[in-house]
Amino acid sequence: GECLIGLCVCREGAFGIDCAEGPKSLLPKSASDRPAVLAPSPRARPLSIYVYDMPKELALVPLAVTDAREVRTFKEPDTNYQAELQFLTMLLHDKSIRVLDPKDADLYFVPMLTVYGPASTMGCDRAKLEIAISHIRAKHRAIWERHGGRDHVFFLSGDRGSCALGQAGKDVILMSHWGLLGRPSLMQAHATVGSAAFNELYETAENTQALAEEIQSGAWCFAPHKDVVVAPFV
User: Would you say 152 and 136 are in contact if contact means Cβ atoms under 8 Å apart?
Assistant: First the structure.
């Protein structure tokens, strides 16, 4: 494929977010031109991840528009919110982790790049997550239903992380920067009254069963039993 205004345009028959998928006859002939991810792995994979090729308007178009705007205005991008983009770039080139056949994967990464969309660096784009999940369930139902979406990974690098996702964030693995414990309302109360806002949480913690049910319901901004905290990119 080739890059056109910041988007990958695949040759006929090739597909994937970086055009790495397709018949072997489409692969580059010379070793120097062959994408690193297609080379055989020198060791057994400790973990296999498949990267979805989502509709471009969900992630890549907002990224391309943002890049063009920053080039035009000579504005430096805020690297604090580029963790997902850096993770995606490294994952696409990591031949020891990435697989091109979804049937071989342990986990499925869904590129969202939400900080480049309407949610920006502050909010959490619940609507985009719901659209992404609906797309996957429609196009890749067998993969989604294998574990009910619990092996699908989304990166939410905005300040609110995965707050206020509701049922959309109940089962999937969510990567965020802050690991905010509690409901969104609790986070807002903390901003007003400080640590006293957590008194209710301590009372709930006395009933471990009720606390576990609340966490597993998707009500919390961060669910320790499934979600992952990662450092911002600096």
Answer: yes
